[in-house]
Amino acid sequence: MTGTALLPLLVPGHLCGVGLSFFGDWAEVSFVADRALPLGELLPKLWEQAVRELEESVQR
After folding, report:
1. Residue 32: which residues within 8 A CB-CB, separation 6 or more?
2. Which of 3, 58, 54 is nearest to 27 (CA)?
3. Under DSSP, is residue 15 helix (H, G, I), strand (E, B) or coil?
4. What's the pLDDT tens digit per position in 1-55?
5. Residues 6+ apart with CB under 8 A from 57
6. pTM, entire model
């Protein structure tokens, strides 16, 4: 692992957090969501969709 970031830092009261772990030339994303967050279970799929759209726009 070459780096890590928590967005935002997981403190009491936050309903979700995203962890980014960097491994050289690739990264891994982790999600933590409180069940109180409406539709929080959709965060990983929405992230994948946004990354795919960004990649497609850069390739044009």
Report:
1. 10, 16, 17, 18, 19
2. 3
3. coil
4. 899 888 876 677 788 888 899 998 988 988 888 888 898 889 889 989 999 999 9
5. none
6. 0.63
Residue 31 pLDDT: 84
User: Residue written as tokens 């959709």?
Assistant: 42
Distance CA 17, CA 48 (A): 16
* Residues comprising the chain, all counted: 60
User: CA-CA distances (angstroms) from residue 7 to 3, 46, 57, 58, 60?
Assistant: 13, 16, 25, 24, 30
Cβ-contact 54, 46 below 8 angstroms: no
